[in-house]
Amino acid sequence: MSQNTGASYAAAGVDIEAGDRAVELMKEWVKKTRRPEVLGGLGGFAGLFDASALKNYERPLLASATDGVGTKVDIARQMGVYDSIGHDLVAMVMDDIVVCGAEPLFMTDYICVGKVHPERVAALVKGIAEGCVLAGCALVGGETAEHPGLLGPDDFDVAGAGTGVVEADRLLGADRVRTGDAVIAMASSGLHSNGYSLVRHVLLDRAGLALGARIDELGRTLGEELLEPTRIYSLDCLALLRTTEVHAFSHVTGGGLAANLARVIPDGLHATVNRSTWTPAPVFDLVGRTGSVERLELEKTLNMGVGMIAIVPQESVDVALATLADRGVDAWVAGEITDRGEHTTGAALVGDYAK
């Protein structure tokens, strides 16, 4: 009798059993993100969230965002470290949602791999779950897709989508910003999750630095610095909203500080941020110096040490800074809102960075 040589899913490179094992490994981490509104468990076709809690709102607005972490995943792949990238994913999604004043509610993830390694997938979900706890939201579901032939066995990418809610009359944005408002900067934890195509090009491709090499000015290896998780500001921003008046937030991501701040500045007003109020972490100088990258190019690509901005009235400054200090967030007054005058853009950086 001839052996059956017919095609199969496994022969094509998709391992369903490995996928099932990955689900079992991640269940304990997903459970840690559970909120009272979550119904059912992991493994259903859809995540369920009880929206009856929104009855307490006069006019609830749902806020939604989706994002990934860009080419930072290649650093994680090379380092063989998979959990920290999940923090990055949650930060990129939920910190966009909180900018409008919304409370993060729930998130779903999408993990695409060349080959399912259950422990790696579980580590990715572990990091996402830990990030969701830090953001105060539930991880209600996700998808792991195996794409042999399109991705190498060790290649992967992650993306996520989140939902939050805000009362309509508490929606933050440019329409609330006024002349004289203070611009409060919140320190970033490092590069966060933007600009890694430039960073990899400069430090790895051109300079040939090894991820395992210890860099004295960084105080750790290059790989450890590049994998530093993105700070999640969601609960910090919500704490500000509970304790004082806030007119707008700006999440500093792709495009840099000035471009993202300009998104919440109304026509006719201008935000001036003084570089002399802070010193960027050494990694930013390392990238600029090693690649001979001009300052303006760095500032268009990287966060330069500021991950989130709060625009508040002057009378709210002291309470805002005290609230953030109590939460362990390094924050300072970095600028102010003025009439546009001669300015043609909504925000600009002036002066030189403190040494």
UniProtKB/TrEMBL annotation:
Keywords: ATP-binding, Cytoplasm, Ligase, Nucleotide-binding, Purine biosynthesis
Primary location class: cytoplasm
Pathway terms, separated by semicolons: Purine metabolism; IMP biosynthesis via de novo pathway; 5-amino-1-(5-phospho-D-ribosyl)imidazole from N(2)-formyl-N(1)-(5-phospho-D-ribosyl)glycinamide: step 2/2
Intracellular or extracellular location(s): Cytoplasm
Gene Ontology biological process terms, A to Z: 'de novo' IMP biosynthetic process; adenine biosynthetic process
Reactions catalysed: 2-formamido-N(1)-(5-O-phospho-beta-D-ribosyl)acetamidine + ATP = 5-amino-1-(5-phospho-beta-D-ribosyl)imidazole + ADP + phosphate + H(+)
GO cellular component terms given for this protein: cytosol
InterPro entries according to UniProt: PurM-like_C_dom (IPR010918), PurM-like_C_sf (IPR036676), PurM-like_N (IPR016188), PurM-like_N_sf (IPR036921), PurM_cligase (IPR004733)
CDD domains: PurM
tRNA processing found in the keyword field: no
GO MF annotation list: ATP binding; phosphoribosylamine-glycine ligase activity; phosphoribosylformylglycinamidine cyclo-ligase activity
Documented EC number(s): 6.3.3.1
Domain PurM-like C-terminal: 179-343
Residues spanning the signal sequence: none
Keyword field contains Transport: no
Domain PurM-like N-terminal, chain residue ranges per copy: 58-166
Record-stated family: Belongs to the AIR synthase family.
HAMAP family: AIRS (MF_00741)
Protein name in the entry: Phosphoribosylformylglycinamidine cyclo-ligase
